[in-house]
Amino acid sequence: MEFGSIAEMESYAKSLMNISAMICAEEMVEIMKEQIQDAYNSYRPSIYVRTGDLLETPQVVSASSDGMETEFEDNGHWFSLVGKTAGQHFFALEGLEGGHTWGRGATQIYDFSVSECQSKIPDLYIEQLRRMGVPIR
Length: 137
Prior knowledge:
- The chain is mainly alpha-helical.
- It has helices at residues 6-41, 92-98, 109-131; strands spanning 58-64, 67-72.
- Strands 1-2 form a two-stranded antiparallel ribbon.
- Helix 1 (6-41) runs antiparallel to helix 3 (109-131).
- 18% of the residues are buried.
C-alpha cells in the first residue's frame, strides 16, 4: 500500500485501530457475560425465577483508537423482593457483588471481568492489527 501523505497513512492506521478496538470491545462484553454465567452456574435461586436479564447488561460504551469502554448497564427492570427495600429499584448485579442478595455470598463478577479483560484484550488488539496487515511486534 502506498500513501500520498503522512496524514493519509495516519488516517488509514487509525481506521484499522478503530476496527480492532470494536472487535476487542465486543470480546470484553463476551468476557463479562462469561463471568455472569459463571455466577449463574454457582447457585440456583430459591425465591425468584431467573430471567437471564443479567446477561444483557454488558454493553459497549465506546471503542476507538483512543481506547475501549464497556459497562454493566442497569436496565431499570429489577426490584427488591424482600426486606425494607421490597418493591424498590434494585440493580441485581450490585446486590450480587455486595453479597446482600438472597442469602448468598458476594460474587466477583466485576473484578474477574476486569482481570480477564486486562489479561486478554491487549494481545487480542495487537493480533487483530496484525490480521489486517499492520506489521507490529
